Amino acid sequence: MHWLLEPFQYDFILRALFAGALAAIxxxxxxxxxxxxxxxxxxDALAHGVLPGIAVAFIIGIDxxxxxxxxxxxxxxxxxxxxxxxxxxxxxxxxxxxxxxxALGVAIISRxxxxxxxxxxFLFGSVLGITTADLWVQLVAAVVTLLAVVVFHRMFLALxxxxxxAAALGLRxxxxxxxxxxxxxxxxxxxxxxxxxxxxxxxxxxxxxxxxLVVRRVPAMMALSCAxxxxxxxxxxxxxxxxxxxxxxxxxxxxxxxxxxxxxxRELLTRxxxxxxxxx
Length: 280
Fold this sequence. Notes:
The chain is 85% helix and 0% strand. It is mainly alpha-helical. It has helices spanning 2-5, 11-37, 40-49, 51-60, 64-85, 90-109, 115-124, 132-151, 153-161, 163-168, 173-214, 218-243, 247-279.
């Protein structure tokens, strides 16, 4: 027990825990719908697409969260434009903007004198350097996300299963889709300081995917996903402290490792239950 609790005697690790927990909760609430709707590639693209906005905001000296959010909105609008103006699939438009925005962001950051340090911080996060102001931003984002998923629950649910029926019921699937994309953008923008733009995708997808292996109802999936995300963040920080690894990468990697552990356990239980039937 001492091995698990020892890291949290330090204030900066406690702040990192709070930041990671808020990021996990925000991402889990939105990520549940991302997993249900099969929007993982879109989530990944948005996580990478915020980099140009972050770079521009950093260079001109404004809050990088503002630049990240503007960049995410541009990404969403660009994907919709490619889909409407061409006959290409949605994945093609996402892939083009994914690579283009990432390349643009790296190119802009490369103009700064501290290129390597800035890029590493933006891509992989700096959770051990989180400030109190950053925590307040994350708290507001978590509250906004929670309120939105409650208010739009019926619309999201109808959209996830049949967009045409949702439209027939007057549940406005286009608005629901747009709100969902905005919530993904909020989750990414609020969480990238903790785990970086490259690794926030782990918190967005891995905990909800793990929860989907265990439960089926959406509220239960969200609750379990939040619990898995927070536990993975705490365990990741313990590993970081004892093994001197990168905090953001360790936290994100832990969420993925938990998924495969649960998957293996479920498969083992399934085989054990089938064995008596096979013997009989």
